[in-house]
Structure formats: C-alpha cells, structure tokens
Amino acid sequence: xxxxxxxxxxxxxKVFLQKRMAKRAMRQALSQVSVIGRKTIARSYxxxxxxxxxxxxxxxxxxxxxxxxxxxxxxxxxxxxxSKGKFLVLALDDTRVKKSGKKIEACQWGRDPMSxxxxxxxxxxxxxxxxxxxxxxxxxEISSRALPxxxxxxxxxxxxxxxxxxxxxxxxxxxxxxxxxxxxxTEEIKQMRKRVDSLAGKEKILSIVMDGSYANKTIxxxxxxxxxxxxxxxxxxxxxxxxxxxxxxSEQKFTPLDIQAxxxxxxxxxxxxxxxKFRKVEYKELSEVLWQxxxxxxxxxxxxxxxxxxxxxxxxxLLYRQAAYLLTTDLNTAAxxxxxxxxxxxxxxxxxxxxxxxxxxxxxxVRVGKSVARQPSLTASTYSIxxxxxxxxxxxxxxDDFGALPAYQRDKDRxxxxxxxxxxxLEACNKPEIFPFSLNISxxxxxxxxxx
Length: 452
Known about the structure:
Layout: H1 2-10, H2 19-34, H3 41-46, H4 56-62, H5 73-82, E1 87-98, E2 108-111, E3 122-135, E4 145-153, H6 166-178, H7 181-198, E5 205-210, H8 217-220, E6 227-232, E7 239-242, E8 249-254, H9 256-261, E9 268-274, E10 277-289, E11 300-305, E12 309-310, E13 319-320, E14 324-328, H10 335-344, H11 347-357, H12 369-394, H13 417-430, H14 443-450
Helix pairs in contact: 1-12, 4-12
C-alpha cells in the first residue's frame, strides 16, 4: 500500500515548479497524518527530526506557485478507471472548518450546521466546496467510498457597513450575484468536466448528486455538457406538465407531496444497497415534468421515495423516516441506478467527519490567504490517495494486514481512517527505506511531538 501511495504522490512533481518542492509537500502530507494529537505544520516538521529552516513548510503554501486542484489528478484518473458503467458519480456538498484566529483571511461567522432546528447557532470558520468521486467497491456488499477530488475555499462576500457609500452598496449587490456558492458550483462543475476529459474520461457522463440547498434556478438552469444533475427538492416545489399549444407550462400545478398522496400513481419497489445491506425501497416517478421557477422549460424527472420503517430496538415501536423527493435531469436511466447514486451520496458526509476528526482538516495554524485555501487541499488529497491505495492493494474488505480488532469492537467490513493512519505509522517506523525522501519518523518522535 505504501508503494502505491508514494507512486501517486510522485505525480505531484508535475504540479510544483521544482522536484524538491514536490518532495517537501509529500513529506509534510505523510508526516502530518502520522502526528499524534493536533495535526499542525509545526508538529509535522518536529516529527521528522530534521534540522534546517522550518519556515519552508509554511512558504510551500504561501509563496510557491501551484494549483491545488492539480493535487487530485491521480485520484480522478484512477476513479475514472474504477467507475463501472457510463457514469462517473460525483457527490457535491459544502462544509465549514472551525477556526478561532481573528486575523485569518476568509474567516467569517456562519450558521452552525449542527445546531438544532429550533435555535440556529453561529460558528466562526471557513466555508469550502467539496466534490468527491463515489468509488464503487468490487464487493457489492461493501459500501462505496467518497474520495475528495476538489476542496475549494468559497468565502461569502463581506457585507458592507451602515456607513457605506451608494457606490459601495451597488458594488456589493452586484458581487453577491456573481461570487456566491451556487455560481461557484456551476463553474466548478464545468471545470470538472474539462478535467475529466483531459484525463481520458470523455466517454464518462458526470452524475452530480447534491443536497437540497443546491436545487435552485442558478444551478438547474445552466447548460452542462455530458452532465446530469440529481438533487433533493422541497416537498412544496411547484411542478407541472407541458402546456397545450403555444403554452410552455400547464396551468395545473402539483407538488411532490401531492404525488406522494396520489392514488393513481403506483408505488414501485427496488433493492438499494444502504447501511451495510440491500434494502427494499418504494418509490414513485414522473417523467417530463417542468419546474418553472427552478429549471425553466428544461424537462425533469421526479422521484418520490417512500418513508422507510425502522425500530430503535428489536422490540421498539415502529417508526418512519421522512420521505425524500428527487429531481434529476436524467430522463432515461433506470430508477434503481438513480436511487443508488442518491443513497451513495451519504458517503461524502463520512468523508467530512474523517477529514476533520482523524486527518486534522483545518488544524494547520496558517492565516495567509493562499495558505488558508491551499493547505486543506493537501490534506484532502492525502486522504483520497491513502484510501484509494488501500482499495487497490487489499481490496474492498478489511484484511489482517491492518492488525486484529480489539475485543470490544465490532467486526469491520471496510478499512477505517484510523486503520490507514496506524498502518502508515508502522511502515514509516519499521521500513523508512521505502520512502524516496527522508521522512525519519520514529516512535520516539511521534510521542515527543504529542507532548509539544
């Protein structure tokens, strides 16, 4: 596995102007993952037991000329080769990284997504747009993986003060229309299409699976080349069929909630893999519907997913989850494929958790504008490369190469983020000759850096 990680990271030599800068990025990425405790740049330097100018690790992000999206090229190329069928499934979402420094560029107050619905809390941090490739496992009974292929900082435009001049107010209103999250999303989808084409993926159709916040006119009215959209929509969205004669929209409107209660539309049933096993999913679908306020005269397909029953305990009360309402621009693909893509989107939330909890996303103490935007991309690309190397080396299921599980832990179907980190630490300590650069990680340095 280590050999595959190094081989993928060696392609970073094309990203940086000099080979020594690429090797510095590799050393920083792998040592930062191996650190015990907070994963800062200073600790990643100390754990290597090197002597020299430590500021070079910071200047790698603040002064060097390189593009952060190019770090993900080896992951995109491998995801194209591993994708089955005609689609390359991409999950899209945004996430906030907590910060505390008041002098960090791009930091703003925003809504805490973990706050309860009855009391919205605020959180100080940076917002990032995250696109991840959904990689299907060779074993059909193992959940897919969401591997980040883009992690871009998208800071909202700062609101002008009450003493702003009319010209400043006018400029602010124009900027928030041009430089917002949805406008950035549409541009990144188009750029992702170009990147996939340049990496021998012209035959693949991009299937972008999004959350409900992206079901709006800014994204759905745009024209994308060889790309389909799948997004969750509101239950009260006003839909209709095409009108008769010269009328584009029919006067009779309906909502997804109306279709859910409509007796004339029959429920269908398919099996979808979700939550470690195949489950029966009931749904209704309507084709050739129009969303006047969202997609204009573009034909869409509505899929209503029936609430799924579950019990919290074996003898507990039978409960039901909420229904889901999907809108997609794909009118021809089988509904079971659309449903599977949507259920696999959840893996991007798993990637968010692992990046923040185990890979130290956002823990690097940087505040310069370039560093704030670039350093998280280095962390996200390392996460993707390590998971991808594990799949290629050991397959879909967790093997004994990662050690025995403790008695208190359940059996794992797939490799976890901590399994990868432990494996990397052991290989760095026991087989330092594998690495083409001086990593110099030892057990003593790992624990010494934790006490700093």
